[in-house]
Design a protein that fits this description.
Length: 340
């Protein structure tokens, strides 16, 4: 049974090297045929004189052919075959090798409330937030990344995954217009981030909020403090400007307050800093994003349950090394003087 299983599992890790076998065999046959025609005198006698001195008797030709194939050429062909097979990597067994998984868990919480359509940063806040997420993903390395969006309610775009390309592919459609209802409940986004971390088996992680503001400060501070208590940190990236920009309604018209004045979406750094402080993280604006990314890469996730963990990864064992001893013996034999 074991022999049958090994035979069924037998394959070559680098089968392209097998394509070298036919040319090598043809070269060995050509060299043997050439020696059969010319014999050992070809290297000693002038070519024109050698043609006149050659004996074409059948017995002599047969002796020369037999002598040629008793020479090194079959062994040379065998040596070339062994070398090509060794390079092709014959394999029929698997080995388990230790591997380690990184300890970083990042959940990106993106604000898609109506104020993210403001144009105080070009082209608008939502687009700049997507650009910032793309920069974070580019430096994620071995981190697991999840993505949450929120307005009045929070929604999971992707759970924690190490496939950042999937997260990046889902970014372009994200904007305030896709959300089913308005609102700006950061607490819901933070609670959803905690759910993702808990569902992935992580007792800690980094939550990165990208927002222009929120309208539930008490609840948001409480959720940020809860995340910190659970071993996670909450970093906040402010999207927008202190001067702000007018808000537009669903119909595209500028919104106004009770006095008829335009409503402005303004960035409040002090409010965002309070959330970051409650969550044990940092507050930065878009200009400070590179420094935040650098700190995320350097700081391990406190108490992360899945990192670093040792795992076993199975890989095919390269059996080409078993062909090296007979190959070396053949090469040593072929090194005899006068054979080649």
């Amino acid at each position: 049974m074991a022999l049958n299983a090994a035979w069924q599992a037998f394959h070559f890790l680098r089968p392209i090297w097998l394509a070298a076998l036919p040319p090598l065999w043809l070269a060995a046959a050509w060299l043997a045929r050439r020696r059969e025609r010319e014999g050992d005198w070809a290297g000693l006698v002038d070519a024109e004189l050698f043609e006149r001195l050659r004996l074409d008797g059948g017995g002599a030709a047969a002796d020369r052919a037999q002598q040629a194939w008793r020479g090194p050429w079959p062994w040379l062909a065998l040596a070339w075959t062994l070398a090509a097979l060794a390079l092709a990597g014959p394999s029929w067994q698997r080995d388990a090798a230790p591997a380690w998984r990184g300890n970083a868990a990042w959940v990106l919480v993106l604000d898609l409330s109506p104020q993210m359509a403001a144009t105080d940063v070009a082209p608008d806040r939502a687009t700049r937030a997507r650009y910032a997420i793309d920069d974070i993903l580019a430096q994620a390395r071995d981190a697991r990344v999840g993505l949450v969006v929120y307005s009045g309610q929070a929604y999971t775009v992707t759970p924690l995954t190490d496939d950042v390309n999937t997260v990046r592919a889902l970014l372009p459609p994200l904007g305030p217009g896709i959300m089913p209802a308005g609102g700006d409940a950061l607490a819901a986004g933070l609670a959803r981030a905690q759910t993702l971390l808990h569902g992935a088996g992580a007792v800690g992680g980094h939550v990165i909020v990208l927002t222009g503001g929120f309208d539930d400060p008490a609840a948001a501070l409480a959720e940020a403090a809860a995340l910190r208590k659970a071993g996670s940190s909450v970093d906040v990236v402010g999207i927008g400007s202190v001067a702000g920009a007018p808000l537009r309604g669903p119909d595209g018209a500028f919104e106004t307050d009770a006095q008829g004045r335009p409503r402005l979406a303004r960035l409040d750094p002090a409010l965002l800093q309070s959330v970051a402080t409650a969550g044990g993280g940092r507050y930065v604006d878009l200009a400070g994003l590179p420094s935040l990314i650098a700190s995320l890469q350097q700081a391990p996730t406190p108490g992360a349950a899945f990192g670093p963990q040792q795992h076993e990864v199975a890989h095919w064992r390269d059996g080409g090394a078993w062909l090296l001893p007979p190959l070396l013996l053949l090469v040593a034999a072929l090194a005899r003087r006068s054979w080649l």
